[in-house]
């Protein structure tokens, strides 16, 4: 099949959907890959590298399957061939207009943030691969912002105590943040409403914080579910006490399809040490801290609150490399004998296919 890799046009997006290594494998499997000139340059992949991998420079939008990182614009949707396919992460749940446009052009769209978190889908799991990049980068941002060293230092000028890092939400990003903060020498603790993560947190050398009266919010598919108002209030009180000792708080809590839960209130921030840093990875979905402002940094009574957006794009080479392998594995799942053959009875295909044969299937 003819696969297309356009250059991403969203501001600040430096990733590319397929990297040269993956292109070489796809070409070997009999696909033709058209890469828009400059598509990989912001991630460190030159047009020459794509050519050497067997790609053809050209109009990526006229391919049979167009591979993307970000949502296409309305103008880009207009460039797609009727009955073509589109693969990427399109935030289908919050993009009804886009899905309508794609259905009108009879595009088969696969939105990979909807992949079920099952073992069979692990190699396609874009949420996990990109959350790994975000969790790592969040710690680097915190280390850059805190006025302290992360590790304990014993020097001729005295002994410096290590930074105390608290990670709220121990999913993929949170676990990566814990591992990264530990590697930098911090003392790390973590909290999550899913008790199942306790062991994973401890295996990374961090302490798992336990509420006096534990809340349990294990939802479907390994995700958390929303807490009741009473449970949430108890959690807020508990966390307000927990953040007092932290030099750095990294928040990653999310509930699929919902606004991110508030975990750190204004009052809790006001109880933190001056110089403390909060990195709110949930900024784009409403923020885990009441004072977070998306895409910017707020300083409130000496506490710095970062609300970064699209952190994976700030590690574009490795984030693209992982994303590209996710996409290629997914293509292997839906393309059979050189043809797109989505099996709508299959759990992975059914969950991710949001437009097909002129219809919006799900959002
Ligand atoms: P996520 O981004 O949806 O949420 C991040 C974390 O926030 C989760 O651990 C969640 O429990 C936590 N959280 C939600 N509300 C909270 C609250 N009020 N207070 C504290 N923490 C709160 O999660 P994710 O990283 O996408 O992971 C979701 C699940 O999928 C996990 O169980 C993960 O292990 C699982 N997973 C499975 C596979 C697989 O088997 N294929 C792959 C990746 C992830």
What do these coordinates show?
The structure is a single chain. The protein has an eight-stranded mixed β-sheet with strand order 3-2-1-4-5-6-18-19, with helices on both faces. Strands 11-10-9-12-13-15-14 form a seven-stranded mixed β-sheet. It has a two-stranded antiparallel sheet with strand order 7-8. The longest helix is centred in the middle third of the chain and has 20 residues, at 126-145. It is globular. The protein starts with a strand and ends with a strand. With 363 residues, the chain is an alpha/beta fold. The chain has eleven helices and 19 strands. Helix content is 31%, strand content 18%. The structure holds nicotinamide-adenine-dinucleotide. Nicotinamide-adenine-dinucleotide is lined by residues 117-119, 121-122, 125, 127-128, 131, 168-174, 191-194, 197, 222-224, 227, 235, 252-256, 261, 263.
Per-chain topology:
Blueprint: E1 2-5, H1 20-28, E2 32-35, H2 47-52, E3 56-57, E4 65-67, H3 74-79, E5 85-88, H4 96-104, E6 108-111, H5 126-145, E7 153-155, E8 158-160, E9 164-168, H6 172-183, E10 187-191, H7 198-203, E11 207-208, H8 229-242, E12 248-251, H9 266-270, E13 277-280, E14 297-300, E15 303-306, H10 316-334, E16 335-336, E17 339-340, H11 347-352, E18 353-356, E19 359-360
Parallel strand pairs: 1-2, 1-4, 2-3, 4-5, 5-6, 9-10, 9-12, 10-11, 12-13, 13-15
Antiparallel strand pairs: 6-18, 7-8, 14-15, 16-17, 18-19
The structure holds nicotinamide-adenine-dinucleotide.
């Amino acid at each position: 099949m003819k696969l297309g890799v356009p250059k991403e046009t969203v501001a600040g997006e430096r990733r590319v959907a397929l990297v040269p290594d993956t292109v070489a494998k796809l070409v070997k499997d009999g696909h033709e890959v058209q890469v828009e000139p400059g598509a990989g340059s912001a991630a460190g992949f030159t047009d020459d590298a794509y050519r050497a991998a067997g790609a053809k420079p050209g109009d990526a939008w006229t391919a049979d399957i167009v591979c993307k990182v970000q949502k296409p614009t309305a103008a880009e949707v207009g460039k797609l061939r009727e009955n073509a396919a589109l693969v990427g992460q399109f935030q289908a749940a919050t993009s009804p207009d886009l899905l309508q446009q794609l259905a009108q052009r009879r595009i088969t769209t696969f939105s990979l943030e909807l992949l079920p978190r099952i073992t069979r889908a692990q190699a396609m799991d874009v949420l996990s691969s990109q959350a790994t990049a975000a969790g790592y980068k969040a710690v680097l941002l915190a280390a850059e912002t805190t006025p302290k060293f992360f590790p304990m230092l014993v020097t001729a000028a005295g002994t410096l105590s290590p930074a105390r890092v608290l990670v709220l939400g121990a999913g993929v990003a949170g676990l990566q943040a814990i591992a990264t903060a530990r590697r930098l020498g911090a003392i790390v603790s973590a909290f999550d409403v899913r008790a199942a993560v306790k062991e994973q947190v401890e295996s990374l050398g961090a302490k798992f914080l336990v509420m006096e009266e534990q809340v349990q919010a294990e939802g479907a598919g390994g995700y958390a579910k929303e807490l009741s108002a009473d449970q949430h209030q108890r959690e807020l009180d508990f966390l307000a006490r927990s953040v007092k000792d932290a030099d750095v708080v990294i928040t990653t809590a999310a509930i699929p399809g919902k606004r991110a839960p508030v975990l750190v209130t204004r009052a809790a921030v006001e109880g933190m040490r001056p110089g403390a840093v909060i990195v709110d990875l949930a900024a784009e979905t409403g923020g885990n801290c009441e004072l977070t402002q998306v895409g910017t940094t707020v300083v409130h009574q000496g506490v710095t609150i970062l609300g970064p957006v699209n952190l994976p794009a700030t590690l574009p080479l490795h984030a693209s490399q992982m994303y590209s392998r996710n996409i290629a594995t997914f293509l292997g799942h839906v393309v059979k004998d050189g043809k797109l053959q989505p099996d709508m009875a299959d759990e992975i295909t059914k969950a991710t296919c949001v437009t097909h044969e002129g219809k919006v299937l799900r959002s």
